[in-house]
Amino acid sequence: MAKIPERPEDIFDEFRGDYATLFGDDLLAIILHGSGARGEYIPKKSDINFLVVLTDNGIEHLSDAMSLVAKWQKRRIPVPLFLTRVYIESSLDAFPLEFFNMKSAYQVIHGEDVLKDLPIEKEALRLQCERELKAKLLLLRESSLHAHGEVHPLRELINQSLPAFISIFKALLYLKGQEIPGRHEAVIPATAENFGLDGELFQRLWDIKRGVAKPGRDELKEIVWDYISEIKGLSRQVDQMV
Q1: 89-125, pLDDT tens digit by residue?
Q2: Which tens digit of pLDDT belongs to each residue from 184-229?
Q3: What dihedral do alpha carbons 153, 129, 198, 137 form, nearest 10°?
Q4: I want to staple 74 with a disulfide (CB 3.0 to 4.6 A). Which of 2, 11, 66, 121 is the partner?
Q5: Can you name the residues that pair with 53 across neighbouring β-strands?
Q6: At residue 206, what are phi and psi to the nearest 5 degrees?
Q7: Per-residue pLDDT, 216
């Protein structure tokens, strides 16, 4: 059985070698991003996320990577994000939040640092934050109703949604000119302070996600509805940001 990495760096040499052998000069960069780059990787729980940057010729031959992707999936490495430099540079206005979050924590393990000098336009970032908050607010409401007040689906709602909101929180702190904490758990109090959110509620949500807190059904229902109310208020604030 393929071994799941204990640390992201345990696979750097082999991963880099596989893709360099396959793509040669068409491989411009391999970049680790996400929890592995933040120092928050947990074996068997966290993903090891890679951005693989190819030339235009390389991306046209992406099907050649099928067997390589399958090999690494057996070790629980997700399919890398395959992009070209042109795609990145032409998509900053469409996906500023995604590129902002990549830039916030990454490690170049091969080739060029294609993220370092990427310009993130603040109004485009604010607009995407607003759009994401409002879309996720609708999803929170829908998912909470689908849960029928049952503990397991309500916990799953929190587990799945909170990391996405933390990614938005980091961008909002940037838009406010605040220092962005490196670790996710520190982003929550900083956002609560700067945007007037219920810090105790979001800490409770974080504890639930980590499995530290396991509230009963009635308390969990109340927490989720308060969660929805806080996100609603935050989306209004972001709508009015200049």
Answers
A1: 999 999 999 999 999 999 999 999 999 999 999 999 9
A2: 889 999 999 999 999 999 999 999 999 999 999 999 999 999 999 9
A3: -40
A4: 2
A5: 29, 83
A6: -65, -40
A7: 95
Amino acid occupying residue 143 = S
Closest CA to 178 of 193, 163, 164: 193
Residue 102 token pair: 């990549």
Residue type, 113: D
- 3-state secondary structure at position 110: strand
| pLDDT for residue 182 | 81
Do 36 and 8 touch, CB atoms closer than 8 A? yes
Instruction: For the chain, give the number of residues.
Output: 242
d(Cα 102, Cα 50) in Å, to the nearest integer? Answer: 10
For residue 184, the surrounding DSSP H or E stretch is helix 184-195
CATH of 8-111, one of 3.40.50.2000, 3.30.460.10, 3.40.50.11540, 3.30.420.40: 3.30.460.10
Own/partner pairs for 91-96, CB < 8 Å, 24+ apart?
A: 92/118, 92/119, 92/120, 92/121, 92/124, 93/121, 93/124, 95/128, 96/120, 96/121, 96/124, 96/125, 96/128
- Tell whether pTM > 0.70: yes
Query: For the purposes of burial, counting CB atoms within 10 Å of the CB of 141, is it exposed (0-12), middle (13-18) or buried (19 or more)?
Result: middle
Whose structure tokens read 């302070």?
193
Tokens of 156: 């799953």
Predicted local confidence at residue 239, as pLDDT: 96
Per domain, the residue ranges of the chain are 8-111, 122-239
Q: Is 111 helix (H, G, I), strand (E, B) or coil?
A: strand
In angstroms, the Cα distances linking 24 to 3, 17, 134 are 26, 10, 43
